[in-house]
Amino acid sequence: xxxxxxxxxxxxxxxxxxxxxxxxxxxxxxxxxxxxxxxxxxxxxxxxxxxxxxxxxxxxxxxxxxxxxxxxxxxxxxxxxxxxxxxxxxxxxxxxxxxxxxxxxxxxxxxxxxxxxxxxxxxxxxxxxxxxxxxxxxxxxxxxxxxxxxxxxxxxxxxxxxxxxxxxxxxxxxxxxxxxxxxxxxxxxxxxxxxxxxxxxxxxxxxxxxxxxxxxxxxxxxxxxxxxxxxxxxxxxxxxxxxx
Length: 244
Known about the structure:
The protein has helices spanning 15-36, 44-47, 50-63, 75-95, 105-119, 123-138, 146-161, 168-177, 181-188, 192-213, 226-242. With 244 residues, it is an all-alpha fold.
């Protein structure tokens, strides 16, 4: 195992990884507050942390050895993501009725399969990864964060396995996944909000990778399967609060 990624001799809890998951959940919730209260649109900036941290968590799970396996994704892990991709779409549409993309879970499913194909050499993983990549390309317009979002877990995986210079891959990938022409036009005019968004897109992968390298000096509650339910549930809670 390269020294750039913490070694896990067993599939025990990783406090650094749990911390990243907590930060991803928290910044996701912060980001989505603006859908209930539009005057909080400035929360879009810290919200750019959420998606890359989720992608890093996927990459770390794919890279992590499991008992009796050389690493990679389990059918159960994939199954939970697929299930909540379906469950979450209706609550997502309730909160964001004008959404032009699917909820984020399908992007993470494809990202998981692509990263797994990068991690594993067996033919099944490679075919699934190739199919996921083709699907991401064809469904780019309907995927939240598009094809570059689906590639981001693989970019993180390469960063975890390689020297620090490879960290540029997820940083640039995060910029590409968040590409929106009006922001770049505003940034070209020197708009501070646009530049803060672009800066956060570059900072988020770097922050995640740095956090994953060091175990936190405090205990971190584990993020377990309840986190899957949190995704659709927080949409419903925000819809209810918006209607008050």
